[in-house]
Amino acid sequence: MNGLINTQKQSASEFLSLLSTSSGVSGHESSIASLVTERFKTITDEVNCDTFGNVYALKKGNGQRAKLMLTAHMDEIGLMVNKIDPRGFLSFTSLGGIDQRTLLSQEVLVHGRQTIPGIIGSLPPHLLQNRDTNQAVKMEGMTIDVGLSFEKIKEVIQIGDVITLRRDTYPLLNNVIAGKSLDDRAGVVVMMVCLEELTHLKHSHDVIAVATTQEEVGVRGAFTSAYTLNPDLAVAIDVTHASTPDTKGQTTLDLGKGPAVALGPNIHPAIYRHFTETAQEHRLPIQLEPIPGATGTDAWAIQVSRAGIPTGLLSIPLRYMHTSVETLDLQDVLNSGKLLAHFISSLPDDLEEFLCY
Amino acid sequence: MLLKTLSELNGTSGAEGSVRDFLRQQLKPFVDTLVVDKMGNLIATKNAHLPGPKIMLSAHMDEVALMITDITSDGFLKFQPVGGIDARILVSKPIQMNEALIGVIGSKAIHLQKSSERQKSLTFDQLYIDIGAKCKEEATSKVKLGDYAYFMTKCEPFGEGLYKGKAFDDRVGCALLVELLKQDYAFPLVAAFTVQEEVGLRGAKIAAYHVAPDFAIVLEGTVAADVSDREEDGWVTELGKGPACSLLDRTTLYSPKLIQWVVDIARGKGIPLQFRRGASGGNDAGSIHVSKAGIPTVVLSVPCRYIHSFVSVISEHDYTACFNLVAALLANLPRKLSINPMGEEEL
Amino acid sequence: MDFKLLEQLTQLFGPSGSEERVAEFISAQVRPYCDNLTSDTLGNLIVHRHGTGKRIMIAAHMDEIGLMITHINKEGFLRFTPLGGVRIQNLIGQRVQFAQGRIGTIWVEKLDRPTDFKLDKLYLDIGVSSREEAEQFVHIGEPAVFVGNFAESESRIISKALDDRVGCFVAIEALRRTKSTHELAFVFTVQEEIGTRGALTAAYALEPDLAIAVDVTATGDTPKAHPMSVELGKGVGIKVLDHSMVTSPQIKRWMADVAADRKIPFQWEVLEYGGTDSGAIHLSRGGVPSGVLSIPTRYVHSPAEMLDKHDVEAAVELLVVLLESNAEL
User: Fold this and answer.
1) What are the tens digits of pLDDT across the range B172-197?
2) How confident is the model at residue A131 (pLDDT cuts 50, 70, 90)?
């Protein structure tokens, strides 16, 4: 049993690393889409995509066959070239919520005609005064050094080229992993774990795992994919804030204590209930996350698509969200996948009754 | 590649061991003696038996880094800088603890920040390292107070004819010094790979005292702020224009006569040379030039963008030109090395 | 290229929510070139041209920013609220005009501190002495637009409402010239400035295969401007990004390849704020592949917006050839 668990952990960890270190800024997710398609082809019946770039992987059920939608977003926050100065330095803007304080002294990749390494440099302490170092350096004051002349740059880089941060994944102690874009590549891995678990379980309903695009710029892939699929029930998988020394009073969730199940107006109460009952029955750890309004995830868009879709949200606790060293516990990812699989397999055949207010 | 290996080694002020061991091993075939002094400076000599003048070349082995000063009740690590670091560069980075342990310096998610927070920078007191420990006990079993944490950056070619990596200040100097020691000379040459430059030019003070050279050349990596829209008068040095000769810094006022000598040789041999146009910073010359009764000292530096951060950039052309210039200086030493401003002798 | 039509378009009265006059004017202009003219519940003007191939929606918005009267005081001074993105700093000393022609001046009360300057300190003076007299000319809820006459020089044009009457102009010119065989729907939308609302409903009803909006964008070529690479006179903008949309790589490539092939000058446009009708259209139903052709414009949302005529010509040319291409993305 242990051997099986270890291979599952290994495969999840490798896939997470692969997704995390690949590049797919909002609106430019095609490389991630290829990786997801390739992997999901091996564990589902059919994989398709739409004109918006969303990837749909269908695992057929063997009974009633209502449509269940799972979503996790493929896109990461990133930067975009918006000016090239005559000395060969690139000015840039952000795509999605990037904290300017995380950018100094950072290696980047500029995705032009080729992938060009660059550096967001910093002025040395020798040239700074105390009053300078109290203020955060503004993004408009930063530039990217690619070590090339203006002429050379024009051959390979254009305005509008996207830029990602150059970051490996790093194993810390205790199954804890740090890297970029774990928001929400970890959610994609949860879907993979869930689909793998479902191969050992019976489930009557069709499961369509959707890797969505452009969540970070307005949950846009969720709007269009929910309309296209029009499922009977949907669960979004995303990340949520885990406590650290500087978040006292702002978060209550911890790394390693299991996925967070959301409740509140964005969440259908029956879905919330079913998650907690499933967790109890299968002795899987969960934490509760009450959210009084918008959840800030794909779930917000899905819930009001067409005539409305009953929606739930499962979140992986994550430290330092939207920095390039997001940190999570791999065990939480595995437990999320398992919980989701049991949730699906134990749904009743008559969904309408189940979802009735 | 020598520079790559030196750049990727970890060694900060007071903990230069791995750099020292590597250098010892590299230098054995080329030098007469190799000695480590009371503070840890590595001193290599050639031709001690030849008549003078005795020339000392120096480069410092230490890089800036972080020292662990506390372990919190949740198992996070607090730290302070060793040497001058702008706290703002530390946010959202992986950091190398001991050989096998990696940590990250994160920061509160943007979603949880008030807009006023985003404009202020985080201070050393607010930052911490996360090693994924479950509790304080686990953290203390892996890390001790006083342990060091280093920047993690691979040294690689970059752009056109450039290199990027950490600690070019002053592994660039160390690499140049190793290369210079492989040549032959007709006078006594001492190479001092010094310790603890970054915390106050400390190793150089005692090295200068016990080596007691007649003349010293310090090899450094120095500030190049020739970036994007910064005005030219604020660049200090510029990549691609050759090694930079220091004029003035916080610790030394360099002799105009010596500087003229350097300029003349460079011009004579067609080696590019620029001046270090700024008065900020300091280096081992600060300790060396006032040792005992005084030692004539010049500093030649390889221009380095983004010094004291995770990733700096140098130009291969500048590195090579610096080597050529020092070799030319050593081949054309003046008979007298007096730099007394009142003296009438010319160099 | 003759810009008389553009002049007429800019001087029409058409704030968000009251675009009828613009719709009427445009209808008369396009009637000889289309198969069908309809308008929908919100007031969008939809101009159909039958065809085979793809159903392409071309959107340009008819509305301009303005003000709406919220209060008339005893002495006949008016208070107002903005319609669309009006910068209150731009308002002091401006003239505005109502539908029936009445003109007024905006001024500000005396401020204790400069930081007190807010919308509620501004008022509109239409030259009357009492509420009763004012009510002969305007009523509460009535909109007004900036006064900004049209000035044309050799290469530049200054006017109010170039945003987005120039888009309407480009669309009309393209409709006249194009020999496209696709099914075309030129939609002159309403209420873009207050939330791209007309585009939402028009796109849902039309279900197009592809959409191109024509609107204005900012430039980075004025003193100490916010860094932006777009400049007047360097060609039509192909939009890469704004707050409402990330243009898909396929659309960008298609537009740039067609422009390069026909040697039409273009520039990549990255805008760090703002949105266009394509922002609403591209999310319609299951998603619609959309792009934007942008006319570089200085001083957007002021009564003296400025553009370069060559950029407008380039926009018309590019739109025409895009519509005539096979549009296989």
Assistant:
1) 999 999 999 999 999 999 999 999 99
2) low
Q: What are the backbone dihedrals phi and psi of residue B236, each rounded to the nearest 5 degrees, phi first?
A: 70, -70
With an 8 Å Cβ cutoff, are C285 and A227 in contact?
Answer: yes
Instruction: Give yes or no: residues B26 and B123 share one domain.
Output: no
**Active-site annotation holds for C192:** yes
- Over chain A, what is the mean pLDDT? 93
Beta-carbon-side half-sphere exposure of residue A262 (alpha carbons within 13 Å)? 28
Residues of A in contact with C248 (CB under 8 A): 27, 53
- B325 CB-near residues (< 8 Å, 6+ apart): B242, B243, B262, B265, B266, B269, B271, B273, B300
Question: Which structural domain, as residue segments, surrounds residue B80?
Answer: 65-151
Q: Please indicate whether, in this complex, the C-beta atoms of A172 and B225 are within 8 angstroms of each other.
A: no
Give A133's contacts in chain B (Cβ within 8 Å): 86-88, 121
Instruction: Kindly list the distances between the CA atom of residue C126 and the CA atoms of B74, B90, C96, C109, C133, in Å, as whole numbers in the listed order.
Output: 68, 59, 9, 16, 10
Q: Which residues between 254 and 273 in chain B have a beta carbon less than 8 angstroms from any beta carbon of chain A?
A: none
Task: Give whole-number Cα distances, B119 to A16, A99, B21, C89, C226, in Å.
Answer: 33, 10, 44, 25, 18
A187 at the C interface (CB within 8 A)?
no
Task: Give the model's confidence band at A124: pLDDT under 50 very low, under 70 low, under 90 confident, else very high.
Answer: confident
The fold adopted by the segment(s) A78-165 is Elongation Factor Tu (Ef-tu); domain 3 (2.40.30)
Same domain for B115 and B17?
no
Establish if C125 belongs to a structural domain: yes
What ipTM is given for this predicted complex?
A: 0.84
| Distance (Å, whole) CA B268 – CA B328 | 10
* Whole-angstrom distance, CA of residue B11 vs CA of residue B19: 6
On whether any CB of chain A is under 8 Å from the CB of B122, the answer is yes
- pLDDT tens per residue across span B255-313: 888 899 999 999 999 999 999 987 888 899 999 998 888 899 999 999 999 999 999 99
The reply to whether residue A327 touches residue B106, judged by beta carbons under 8 angstroms, is yes
Whether residue A2 is predicted with pLDDT greater than 60 in this model: the reply is no
Task: For domain A2-76+180-354, give its CATH number from 3.90.1170.40, 3.30.70.100, 3.30.70.1710, 3.40.630.10.
Answer: 3.40.630.10
Mean pLDDT over C290-303 rounds to: 97
Express each pLDDT in C65-79 by its tens digit: 999 898 999 999 999
B-proximal residues of A, 19-78, CB under 8 Å? none
Please report residues of B whose CB lies closer than 8 A to that of A164. Answer: none
What tokens does C20 get?
Answer: 């009828």
Environment class of C199 (CB within 10 Å of its CB; exposed 0-12, middle 13-18, buried 19+) = buried
Instruction: Name which of B117, B128, B251, B309 to mutate to probe chain A: the one with the most chain A Cβ atoms within 10 A of its Cβ.
Output: B309
Taking alpha carbons only, the member of B274, B289, B269, B279 closest to residue B217 is B289
Q: Which pLDDT belongs to residue A356?
A: 83
Cβ proximity of C329 and C251 under 8 Å:
yes
- Let me know if residue B340 belongs to a domain: no
pLDDT at A252: 81
CATH code for the domain in which residue B281 is found: 3.40.630.10
Residue A159 has its nearest CB partner, among C229, C249, C283, at C229
Residues 34-53 in A contacting C (C-alpha not used; CB under 8 Å): 50-53
Q: pTM for the full model?
A: 0.87
Are C132 and C265 part of one and the same domain?
A: no
- Domain with C96, as residue range(s), is 66-146
Residues C212-228 have pLDDT tens digits of 999 999 999 999 888 89
- Distance in Å from the first CA to the final CA of chain A: 41
Are B309 and B196 contained in the same domain? Answer: yes
Query: What's the pLDDT at A314?
Result: 98
Do B41 and B113 sit in the same domain of this protein? no
Closest alpha carbon within chain A to C284: A224
CB within 8 Å: A83 and C289: no
Contact at CB, A160 and C286, closer than 8 angstroms: no
